[in-house]
From TrEMBL:
Residues 5-141 form the Phosphotyrosine protein phosphatase I domain. The keyword Protein biosynthesis does not apply. This is Arsenate reductase and protein tyrosine phosphatase. The keyword tRNA processing does not apply. Keywords: Arsenical resistance. Pfam families: LMWPc. GO terms for biological process: response to arsenic-containing substance. The lineage of its organism: Bacteria, Pseudomonadati, Thermodesulfobacteriota, Desulfuromonadia, Desulfuromonadales. It comes from Syntrophotalea carbinolica (strain DSM 2380 / NBRC 103641 / GraBd1).
Length: 148
């Protein structure tokens, strides 16, 4: 069996978007991908991200917020930055990892503009669904992309 493609989803705090991407990749593409997530910093797991992923049958409640420094020895094929800050501050990876930027809106920031709890959760749901659409196109969506 060929080796699976090793993908790291990188965000600022590894609390929401990168966690959702890792959860979707493990749920939908575990036959093709080995998925990790990390942050430039660690902010802890966002409870609303856990909640909206659980709504669609993906359990990320056991995930932990990881710092990118702890994963630098893994020979990733791709590093997918899911927010602008992570893309701008992405460290150089040893080996042949290709860095691909696929930005998604920040649910906690969007939720600050909303009134009710349901409206706030809808911000998370929208980004969750956008991330799923991206993950469904993997690994093909990564082929031929990258910055190094």
């Amino acid at each position: 069996m060929p080796n699976k493609i090793k993908v790291l989803f990188l965000c600022t705090g590894n609390s929401c978007r990168s966690q959702m991407a890792e959860g979707w990749a493990r749920h939908l593409k575990s036959d093709q991908l080995e998925a990790w997530s990390a942050g430039i910093e660690t902010h802890g797991l966002n409870p609303r991200a856990v909640q909206v992923m659980a709504e669609v049958g993906v359990d990320i409640s056991g995930h932990e917020s990881q710092n990118i420094r702890d994963l630098l020895d893994i020979p990733f094929d791709y590093v997918v930055t899911v927010c602008g800050h992570a893309h701008e501050t992405c460290p150089i990876f040893p080996g042949q990892a290709k860095v691909v930027h696929v930005g998604f809106d920040d649910p906690p920031k969007m939720a600050q503009e909303c009134g009710t709890e349901e409206e706030q959760l809808n911000c998370y749901r929208r980004v969750r669904d956008e991330i799923r659409t991206f993950i469904e196109r993997l690994p093909e969506a990564l082929m031929g992309q990258g910055e190094g």
